[in-house]
Amino acid sequence: MTLLEVAGVSKSFPGVRALDDVSFTLRPGEVHALVGENGAGKSTLIKVLTGVYRPDSGELRYRGEPVSFAAPMDAQRAGISTIYQEVNLVPLMSVAQNLFLGREPRNRLGLVDRGRMEREARDILADYGVTTDVRRRLGALPLGAQQMVALARAVMIDAQVVIMDEPTSSLEPREVQTLFGVIRRLHARGIGIVYVSHRMDELYEICDAVTILRDGRLVHTGELAGLERIELVSMMLGREMSPARRQGFTAFAGDHDADDTAPPILAVTGLTSRNRLHDVSFDVRPGEVVGLGGLLGAGRSETIKAIGGAYPIDGGTIRVDGEDLGRPSTVRAVAAGIAVQPEDRKAEGIVAGLSVRDNIALAVLPRMSRLGIVSEARIDAIVQRYMTRLRIKASSPGQLVGDLSGGNQQKVLLARLLATDPKILLLDEPTRGIDVGAKAEVQSLIDELAGEGLGVVLVSSDAEELVEGADRVVVLRDGAVVGHLTGDRVTTEDLMAGIAAAAAPSEDPA
Amino acid sequence: MSVRSNRWRPVAVVLGTAVVLAGAGACAKSEETPASSAAGPAPAASQVVQSAAPGAATCTLDQYGGTKIDLKTAKVGFSQSEKEANPFRIAETKSIQDEAAKLGIANLTTANANSQFNKQISDVEQMIDSGVQLLVIAPLNSDGWDSVFAKASAKKVPIITIDRKINATPCKDYLTFIGSDFAEQGKRAADEMAKALGNKGEVAILLGAPGNNVTTLRTSGFKEQIAKVAPDIKVTFEQTGNFSREEGQKVAEQLLQSNPGINGIYGENDEMALGAVTALKGAGKKAGDVKIVSIDGTQGAVEGIVNGWISAVIESNPRFGPLAFDTATKFFAGQPVGQDIIIADRAYDTTNAKTDVGSAY
Amino acid sequence: MTPLALATRPAVRSWLPDYGVYLAIALLILYNVAFTPYFLEWSNLRIQLVQVAPIVIVALGMALVIGTEGIDLSVGSVMALAAALIPLYLGYGVAAAIVVSLLAGVVVGLVNGVLVARVGLQPIVATLAVFVGGRGLAVVISDGQLKEIRNPGLINLGSGDLLGVPVLVWITAVLAGVVAFVLRRTVFGRRLLAVGGNRRATELAGVPVARVLITVYVACAVLASIAGLLSVARIQSSDASAVGLLIELSAITAVVVGGTPLTGGRVRILGTVAGALLMQLVTATMIKHDLGPSTAEMAQAVIILVAVYVARERKTR
To answer: ABC transporter domain: which residues (chain A) (predicted)?
Structure first.
């Protein structure tokens, strides 16, 4: 018997096919891992399961019956609860009030029976390892305890299915063990659990089954026991190439002739940031592309932002051309020749409400001006140059960037970076969410720029792109460098092995 | 690496700049006041009681309950309602303080509610708690005083309200009210307007703040009296200037531009009338082209009469000190005092402005 | 639906938020020409322009702040501070008094800017401090008293003419021109719009965002102090408890009605001037027809609602 099942579900958004004919089955008492990299379709699938989205096609069955949830409330009433990374409760109300919100015990007069409510809350939470004064504001509790309250509430409302979206991302190790204890109890009670996480160790500790999504498609589903870690990772990252990829290679040309003896253009040593980065060090030489490998949450984006002065660090030095950058700031980083292309293009990259022209010129305005007054002619020249070089397709330089396609937005962003004449280019998922043509163009551009002597740091969740684009790969896990691939070892197999290795002290062979 | 070493710098900047601002008055040097207005310490005209109607209700110590005390050694509290930004409030507070000093009352506490009613209530309650034996209150609102009355009557503290009346029972909730008759002020302004216009013309009223009983009474009194004594004078516009000079000026500018027929402006306080004077100057009018009558009796307005821009000013005398303490002295000595003491306000016009400008406030 | 209708509807939708304010002004003028005596006179235009001048000046600064996705509640208190300082320093001459009151603007702007840009407070909270405390300080500085101004130089600023046009109007026009130029043609103006459009992205582009924000708040406060001293010059007296009271609301209204979105990234200077003029015309019309102040307030409320509704249309386009 199955508890919750989707069959052949597809869901599209403008320009994206988020889910393509995906099927998924959850049995009672099963802890089912749902894994995949960013954009794989995990969130969309969860939203279909919980009634946030309605699928374009395909069927949703709950306890054997076809269902259609009009709103998240319907799914919740039917017994499907979701626990998000950010706790979805009212921080200003007491723990007990949160637990019983909307279903408070009443006394004979129909008033809320506070004494009973608090007593019951205390008992229930004790089961979840939370021993606190239930009259405290929820917001005053540590995040882990808040998550337990959310979980207790979800189970209390007769949940049959509990979906946990990265429940451990903000928990301390001790809290994680408490959570697992609770999951095991739920498991024993026959409740089905969908467990979303990218932490390998956790998956193998707590999950029975696994479903792997990639690019909106189902890659694999089955028992977790017996599935090698490396297989799991390679399926997530797409070693098994899709038909389209099997014919074409990336547009990368191969290794660059970086001078191994040249002094590094970028030297990062001991980069540390509380909880996120631990002693990250690596070098980049002029003309070299260094890849940063690792799974989601390994610290790749944080490393890039920290170098760019946009992520707070507690220690470490960043040297450009041998010169210490000192206290990091975005202003200093750009002035020193570091250009960052952030992962989230819309939130941190483009200024959607400004024109292509203004976006490209943004970082170089002082150079385009005299006494603070901008020279339109100089801006026109530079905008023209980069629009031509990057083949940016816009109706005119005055078109709003928000109205362009993803690929062209990305090119506008790259044009802004290049206009600053950088020495080092830090690219975080430069080809994500852009069409195949633009992807190839961006890839060859990276080659070309390295050829011109720039140092490039490349982050990509696409294993193929990473190994073909990079001359060397630094592998990160949980914010620390765990491997270093050079020469012949820059292969997807070695990358998978580096990523999949069980949590252990650094085994850097290089 | 000192990544976070500068986190307190912004705070330091803020504090530093705040200090600069606070010290701004340090080396100030104001404009020299022209000699004409430097009339020197004027013989401040204290209030006179209108001859009380025979048989008007009075109140005695026995009726009210309480004990005889000597005012000199008594603890007295004064609660002012509004910010002392207009001359009326300044003069009122000063008069209370000066009179107390004159009588040798050493123990006077004053508080200003800054136009917040809640603050006034708590000001007064604190005074009662601290053991005052006489309360003089310039109430912001006419209602909402029940808690204060309860507290005061428990301790038998007599309350004298000045300038605005409280809706309650005199000689029970409070002792007495001392103040002007606002409707009467409006009527007298109407008489002056009729005289200035020769009983014929078009008048615009610059109303006070809407919803205020001072505004209501000064308006109704004026309109009734105009209808009675000079039916040929038409009130063609009634627009609020919120008792403020700037708004009075703005409204007067608009009215005068689109209605050249207006030859009289009644300002329900001096500030708005002075705003209207500025508006007339700006419109290129000469003194006397448009007759202005207003109420309050501030120095600026009385000087306006001397300069010919204003025809007459009806006084609303803010110098409550002598009368309030006189009433209190009588009361504590066991003599009957009136429950409703209406003061006689004087008037300024061209005949007396020059000589009496010193008694304006 | 005919193809023509299909083509014109979206056009009207995008046109309305940008130019609706001019249409409303035109309609109101037509009404007044028909029904208000002596409306089409130079003296009338003069009064409206002079009365609206301080609001326009404050609104210019407000538009810049709103362009960065901020808001400045302290402008009225800054006007009061400037007004309170003028009579204190008039003894040193007009120039000195003006410099001191402008300095007060700079100081308040620095406080606001630092609180927003460096401490990271929300603009509405950061500027609330001065909104509340500034006027109190101004009342203390001025001893809580209204002070008459007799200095001919200052009075000339408020009621004098230059080439037949009030000095006040010249100053306002020049300031509007300067602000528009700064916004269009300077590095600072471009950066301001980028910060408002996407602060995080602008920061990553190496733009000194904090400096831009602090400059914006200083500019806004200085404009407010200019408005404050001009108000004093015009009413020929300084009353710290009344100058600029509630002007922050008038200014925000002018900016919004003028088509500048509160979400930042876009600023319409001419629209802001027109927005202030529209509100002024509404008030004038109500006074000239002897309608009560509540009627004027309701009319203004309707205009604001329409402006907000129209802006919403653009978002959902």
So the answer is: 4-240, 256-503
Q: Work out the minimum CA distance from A54 to partner chain C, whole angstroms.
A: 22
Q: Are strands B337-338 and B58-59 parallel, antiparallel or unpaired?
A: antiparallel
Q: Which of B33, B85, B255 sits opposite C239 (nearest CB)?
A: B85
DSSP label at residue B230: -
Q: How close is the nearest chain B Cα to the Cα of A316, in Å? A: 7
Best residue of C182, C187, C202, C215 to probe chain A, by most A CBs closer than 10 Å:
C187
Q: Which domains does chain A have, with CATH numbers?
A: 29-47+73-208 (3.40.50.300), 261-337+422-500 (3.40.50.300)
Q: Burial code of B246-257, b = ≥16 C-beta within 10 A, e = fewer? A: bbbbbbbbbbbb
Residues of C with Cβ-Cβ distance to B8 under 8 angstroms: none
**B3: Cβ–Cβ under 8 A, 6 or more apart, which residues?**
A312, A313, A314, A327, A328
Mutate to test the interface with C, among B242, B243, B246 (most CBs of C within 10 A): B246
**Disruptive mutation site among C99, C119, C146 for chain B (greatest number of B CBs within 10 Å):** C146
The answer to whether B33 faces chain A, any CB pair under 8 Å, is no
CA distance C235 to B246: 6
Say whether B3 and A317 touch across the interface (CB within 8 A): no
The candidate with the shortest Cα–Cα distance to A293, out of A493, A94, A439, A144, is A493
Contacts of A349 in chain C (CB under 8 A): 201, 204
Collect all residues of chain B within an 8 Å Cβ-Cβ radius of residue C126.
none
Q: Where are the domains of chain C?
A: 42-245
b (16+ CB within 10 A) / e for B218-244: bbebbbebbeeebeebebbbebbbbbb
Name the residue among A420, A30, A18 with its Cα closest to residue A216: A18
Handedness of CA B206, B211, B217, B219 (dihedral sign): positive
Q: What are the strands, taking DSSP E only, across A352-492? A: 369-370, 373-374, 424-428, 455-459, 472-477, 480-485
Nearest by Cα to A272 from A264, A262, A281, A283 = A281
Any chain C CB within 8 A of the CB of B8? no
ipTM metric: 0.86
Tokens of C273: 């001037």
Rounded to whole angstroms, the Cα distance separating A426 from A458 reads 6
> A345 is written with which tokens?
């293009």
- Could you list the pLDDT tens digit for every one of the 361 residues in chain B? 444 445 555 555 555 555 555 555 557 777 765 544 444 444 556 677 775 555 678 888 888 887 888 888 889 999 998 877 678 888 899 999 999 999 888 889 999 887 788 889 999 999 999 999 999 999 988 888 999 999 998 888 999 999 888 888 888 899 999 998 999 999 999 999 999 999 999 999 999 988 778 899 999 999 999 999 999 999 999 999 988 899 999 999 999 999 989 999 999 999 999 999 999 998 889 988 999 999 999 888 999 999 999 999 999 989 899 999 999 999 988 888 888 888 888 889 888 888 888 878 8
Residue B131 DSSP class: T
The Cα–Cα gap between A334 and A318 comes to 13
C201 in contact with A at a CB cutoff of 8 Å?
yes
* Domains of chain B with CATH codes: 48-180+318-344 (3.40.50.2300), 182-315 (3.40.50.2300)
Alpha carbon of B9: minimum distance to chain C alpha carbons (Å): 9
Q: What distances in angstroms separate CA A64 from CA A9, A185, A194, C51, one per listed residue?
A: 16, 24, 18, 74
Which among A58, A61, A67, A62 is positioned nearest to A20, based on CA atoms? A58
* Closest Cβ–Cβ partner in C37, C50, C231 for B258: C37
B10–chain C Cβ distance below 8 A for any pair: yes
Report the gap between the CA of B11 and the closest CA in chain A (Å).
20
In sequence order, the 6+-apart residues with CB closer than 8 A to the CB of B52 are B338, B341, B342
